[in-house]
Design goal:
The chain has 13 helices and 20 strands. By secondary structure, it is α/β, with parallel strands linked by helices. Strand 14 and strand 15 (about 310-315) form a beta hairpin. Helix 2 crosses helix 3 (about 60-75), helix 7 crosses helix 8 (about 210-220) and helix 10 crosses helix 11. The longest helix has 17 residues, at about 30-45. The two termini are about 35 Å apart. About 50% of the residues are buried.
Length: about 400
């Protein structure tokens, strides 16, 4: 199965169900499919073919999400770039990925245009303002292009190149296949996340697997995604009340800013049934405050990394309470999601006894293909077929 299969299935089983909400713009799965196939046709007319890269320097928006699916529809590979990076970091990634197209929005136009001119990359303007000279207008591309046929990418075909944070050196492009992303989505559904009745709110950036994975999962179940342009606590509260948001993935600092917002009690958060949290440890004080402030909300910790598409383990809400809390299970990373194996090993990769400190190794269908153009780092990270996380 590939990404296109998930969309075709969503259209088949829930054609009139709301797929995507971005501000005042709404799309059903059938409408989303129509825009994606026309956009894919436009990309093909601009020269994008199998294995060609399409890069984006954009804030979250519905057009970013359409690009995420339209690109692999014609066999291309999406490259999400961190708009918070410096121009030098963006230049390095663009040179390495060598995209056929670069998508820009209003907020990233200046830096993106300079890089596109320098590197000779064609630009599609996906912003809200008038299209600058020399660029292709996103909406015109959809309106004037014939729908493209699905090329049927699947298995180990490359889907995305997602750059790591670079906290231990230069950012590396993590290659994720269709199998990686689809398997992570299906395992998430099996663990009770992003079910078909979910109204999921994306506050994480779409250039990151924390933004991509939930949308792909919602496409797999036919659920609804409320896409936020970024994290603003009051706008998040407004969206929860207006759209009846049921769940979201938030890092601990986001949780804190949300529950400590001065106007928190002014908004109805009764629909907010589940918060997924991860990316960094949560303090016991913040966890206690969050549980008390949102007593009707379940908190689910998600452990993973970009190289794992990104989810590997889940700690359920019941482990944060009662007897489980007393024995310390709330401090655990959780149990592996279906399909993922976890080992704890010593410095020689030998398994250690239970309750012994060691490095976490993980493998499964969600394990990355490797790092783009970094064969030595790939071999080191994937030694023996296991992801060496460096965590322990």
């Amino acid at each position: 199965m590939g990404l296109s299969y998930l969309l075709r299935r969503a259209v088949q089983i829930r054609p009139n169900h709301t797929a995507l909400i971005f501000g005042d713009r709404r799309q059903t799965w059938s409408e989303f499919h129509g825009r994606v196939t026309h956009l894919a046709g436009g990309f093909a007319a601009l020269g994008v073919g199998p294995d060609d890269r399409v890069a984006a320097i954009m804030d979250n928006c519905d057009r970013y999400t359409e690009t995420l699916i339209a690109t692999p529809w014609i066999g291309g590979v999406i490259v999400g770039l961190n708009f918070r990076w410096s121009i030098n970091e963006l230049r390095d990634a663009l040179r390495e990925a060598a995209p056929k197209l670069l998508l820009l929005d209003d907020g990233n136009l200046e830096i993106g245009r300079a890089l596109a001119t320098e590197l000779g990359v064609q630009v599609v303007f996906a912003g809200e303002g008038p299209c600058p000279d020399g660029m292709v207008a996103y909406e015109e591309l959809i309106a004037t292009s014939e729908p493209a046929a699905d090329v049927g990418r699947t298995g180990q075909d490359l889907f995305t190149i997602n750059y790591t944070g670079g906290t231990t050196g230069r950012s590396k492009g993590v290659m994720l296949s269709h199998t990686n992303s689809v398997s992570c989505a299906l395992s998430s559904l099996a663990d009770g996340l992003f079910t078909e009745n979910a109204i999921y709110m994306t506050a994480m950036p779409m250039f990151h697997t924390g933004g991509i994975w939930p949308f792909v999962s919602c496409m797999a179940s036919g659920a609804t995604t409320v896409l936020m342009p970024g994290f603003d606590a009051e706008l998040i509260l407004q969206a929860i009340e207006k759209e009846g948001v049921t769940e979201s993935l938030l890092v601990p600092t986001m949780v804190q800013r949300l529950i400590e917002h001065p106007k928190f009690k002014d908004y109805d958060t009764s629909s907010f049934a589940q918060i997924l949290y991860g990316a960094s440890p949560i303090t016991e004080a913040l966890l206690n405050k969050a549980l008390a402030t949102l007593p009707h909300t379940k908190f689910v910790q998600c452990y993973g990394m970009t190289e794992l598409s990104p989810l590997a383990a889940v700690l359920r809400h019941e482990n944060l309470l009662g007897e489980n809390r007393k024995i310390g299970r709330h401090k655990a990373a959780g149990r592996s999601i279906p399909g993922v194996e976890i080992e704890i090993v010593d410095e020689n990769d030998n398994p250690v006894p239970r309750r012994t400190v060691g490095q976490l190794l993980m493998r499964g269908p969600n394990l990355m293909m490797g790092y783009w153009n970094w064969p030595e780092e790939t071999a080191k990270a994937l030694k023996g077929g296991w992801m060496h996380t460096g965590d322990g």
